[in-house]
Design brief:
Elements lengths: L2 E7 L3 H6 L6 H13 L3 E8 L6 H13 L4 E6 L7 H8 L23 H23 L2 H30 L1
Parallel strand pairs: 1-2, 2-3
């Protein structure tokens, strides 16, 4: 096992409470720190556009993703999939859901008070902000040293083993 996927969903405790999550933002930081200590790559997912979200709560999620030292963060729009709490809430509120309009990264289904164009803009902002800060974190002398060390000391050995296996298979 080299990596672990975590559905963080939000950096806002208000949004996590709406989702009835039994963890807090601090719990996620503890888990990701433990994963890093074990040598695991953390892959996380955040959702933008959940009911009750505001510009402030979305910005909290973006800031949280950047400050938590996550390896990978993806930002998705809220999708009211059948069986989900969001789907049940929308049905209860009498909202019609056109499943032909659901998309993983963009949607035409209104799930929060934020306009759809604003949700799309915030998702793009979140991705660009995370990538920018992740890049800045990687471009430092210590990270460059460890990457170079990994490439030169671990890389060739791995490729040599792959070549040997390939030759053995082809023989």
């Amino acid at each position: 096992c080299t990596s672990i996927f975590l559905g963080v969903e939000s950096g806002s405790s208000k949004t996590l409470d709406f989702l009835n999550r039994k963890y807090t933002s601090d719990d996620v930081i503890k888990v990701t720190t433990l994963c890093k200590n074990l040598g695991l790559h953390t892959i996380t997912a955040f959702i933008i556009g959940l009911p009750g979200e505001t510009l402030v709560t979305v910005q909290k999620s973006i800031d949280y993703a950047v400050q938590s030292n996550l390896d990978t963060a993806s930002f998705f729009v809220a999708l009211p999939l059948p069986g989900s709490q969001l789907f049940e809430k929308m049905e209860k509120d009498g909202q019609k859901i056109d499943f032909n309009e659901l998309r993983l990264l963009t949607t035409k289904v209104k799930t929060s008070k934020l306009p759809l164009a604003e949700i799309a803009r915030l998702r793009k902002k979140a991705m660009l902000t995370f990538v920018f800060y992740r890049l800045i974190r990687e471009i430092n002398p210590i990270s460059i040293y460890y990457r170079a060390r990994q490439l030169f000391f671990l890389g060739p050995r791995f490729y040599w083993q792959v070549c040997q296996r390939f030759i053995k298979i082809m023989s």
